[in-house]
TrEMBL record:
<dbReference type="GO" id="GO:0036431">
    <property type="term" value="F:dCMP kinase activity"/>
</dbReference>
<keyword id="KW-0067">ATP-binding</keyword>
<keyword id="KW-0547">Nucleotide-binding</keyword>
<dbReference type="Pfam" id="PF02224">
    <property type="entry name" value="Cytidylate_kin"/>
</dbReference>
<dbReference type="GO" id="GO:0005524">
    <property type="term" value="F:ATP binding"/>
</dbReference>
<feature type="binding site">
    <location>
        <begin position="10"/>
        <end position="18"/>
    </location>
    <ligand>
        <name>ATP</name>
    </ligand>
</feature>
<dbReference type="GO" id="GO:0036430">
    <property type="term" value="F:CMP kinase activity"/>
</dbReference>
<protein>
    <recommendedName>
        <fullName>Cytidylate kinase</fullName>
        <ecNumber>2.7.4.25</ecNumber>
    </recommendedName>
</protein>
<dbReference type="GO" id="GO:0005829">
    <property type="term" value="C:cytosol"/>
</dbReference>
<dbReference type="GO" id="GO:0015949">
    <property type="term" value="P:nucleobase-containing small molecule interconversion"/>
</dbReference>
<dbReference type="InterPro" id="IPR027417">
    <property type="entry name" value="P-loop_NTPase"/>
</dbReference>
<feature type="domain" description="Cytidylate kinase">
    <location>
        <begin position="6"/>
        <end position="219"/>
    </location>
</feature>
<keyword id="KW-0418">Kinase</keyword>
<keyword id="KW-0963">Cytoplasm</keyword>
<dbReference type="InterPro" id="IPR011994">
    <property type="entry name" value="Cytidylate_kinase_dom"/>
</dbReference>
<dbReference type="InterPro" id="IPR003136">
    <property type="entry name" value="Cytidylate_kin"/>
</dbReference>
<keyword id="KW-0808">Transferase</keyword>
Amino acid sequence: MEQFNIAIDGPASAGKSTIAKQVAKELGLTYLDTGAMYRALTYMALVHKLNLEDETALLNLLADTEISFPSNQGMQHVFINKMEVTEVIRSKEVTQNVSLVSSHKNVRKKMVSRQQKIAQQGGIVMDGRDIGTVVLPNAALKIYLVASAEERALRRYRESIEKGMQVSLEELTADMIARDNYDMNREASPLKKAEDAIEIDSTNLSINQVVEMILDYAKNYQ
Ligand code: C5P
């Protein structure tokens, strides 16, 4: 039987990962945060002080970088080789550089092939920017999750404050819009809605409402 996969794409801070995680839990599927993979590579590239324009250097680094997602008591952790990087890959420096790293065509090729390999192991909910268009073009259900830039920035701001981070809403908004523009306008698999994706605008919806909507759609496809 064909595996049941769900692709969730959309701009930054639209709530993709929180929602994808809950949907996966409800349906007993595996969850994969593909953004964390690009963040992990970016983190390593910064540690090694690589020139982020240098695709060959990034590819060599990626070849030595095993990225894994061990789950512990329902919490998903991110590891590079044997080092936990769950928190550090969310730093401002990584966030400001990840779009450049992920714009390289051959870096994407390698990441996509890793992601497709993980998907082969069973039904999966994957979130990212090119899941419905490139990684899982045959996914049973494709969601394109959006929300207004103001709402997305506010959500990220509240999250950061809760974590005790010092951030400014203006800076956060500007960084987020710049990252979306970069992701939407790059040459290699830019962020865009797959033709057969269902668009959900979560601006005025709670996480649970969006999860319920996706579970409802999933019923029609299973
Ligand atoms: O999802 P998250 O915001 O953590 O993603 C970080 C960055 O990784 C995105 O801004 C984008 O540049 C890149 N990305 C990508 N393709 C994916 C997932 C993330 O290019 N499938």
